[in-house]
Design brief:
The protein is α+β, with helices and mostly antiparallel strands and 234 residues long. 30% of the residues lie in helices and 28% in strands.
Length: 234
């Protein structure tokens, strides 16, 4: 088995999530050869797959022996080969966005807004305004989410990290938009990742032009090829 970085570093933007996952000792390298890499992020999280040939995609799909799983696959053109092995399933094509600079971003202050860590007091608020999966949101708050609070202590928005390591959950309530709150939250998140020696990256669903605009404004690089989340009862 080859060092996976040899293959992944040929396109560090497309593979930012996989390179970042290798920073976690719990990540399992299942396959790593000249034609592709297959990882299991955090040991029991989603799979991450990159193949340079259709044959390699088929080979790695056969190595996933679970019935219910999630995976992040690239490139998009080999999705049919993956589905031929695992069966057709739900999918979500995304752009991978990556902060490739080493210097921290300037953290701009928003008048009347304080950015600070969320606590479990905001659990229900996040569930109501993002995703009503209390156990998942609880785990994200425990990992470390940031909230933007107005002068009355009301939460105007929040940001965090998904379980596999991508930046996300960014939400700003409608009445607080167009004040730079989302940009301020993203800057703080990027700088946190840099301070941890990790790679700041995120996934933006194809068609979400508003989010792509924010990523470009923060200097994030976009992958030329798509990464595609696939889900099979996971």
């Amino acid at each position: 088995m080859l060092d996976p970085k040899v293959y992944l570093e040929k396109d560090p933007v497309l593979h930012a999530d996989m390179l970042d996952a290798l920073c976690d000792e719990k990540t399992k390298v299942i396959y790593s050869e000249e034609d592709g890499v297959l990882l299991r992020i955090e040991g029991d999280g989603p799979y991450a797959v990159s193949a340079s040939t259709s044959e390699a995609m088929t080979k790695m799909a056969e190595l996933i022996d679970e019935e219910h799983f999630g995976a992040v696959i690239r490139p998009f053109r080999f999705i049919p080969e993956f589905f031929a092995v695992k069966g057709k399933m739900g999918m979500m094509p995304c752009y991978q966005t990556v902060y490739i600079n080493k210097e921290p971003l300037f953290e701009n202050n928003v008048p009347g807004i304080e950015i600070k860590p969320l606590t479990m007091e905001q659990l229900r608020f996040v569930c109501d305004n993002y995703e009503d999966d209390e156990e998942y949101i609880k785990s994200r708050i425990e990992y470390g989410m940031l909230g933007a609070f107005d002068e009355e202590g009301n939460c105007a928005g929040f940001i965090g990290f998904h379980g596999e390591g991508s930046m996300g959950l960014l939400t700003v309530l409608p009445e607080y938009r167009r004040r730079g709150i989302g940009e301020a939250l993203e800057s703080r998140n990027i700088n946190r990742r840099l301070s941890e020696g990790r790679i700041p990256y995120g996934h933006v669903v194809v068609g979400n032009e508003k989010s792509l605009g924010l990523q470009r404004k923060k200097g994030m690089a976009l992958s030329e090829n798509l990464v595609t989340w696939v889900f099979n009862g996971w």
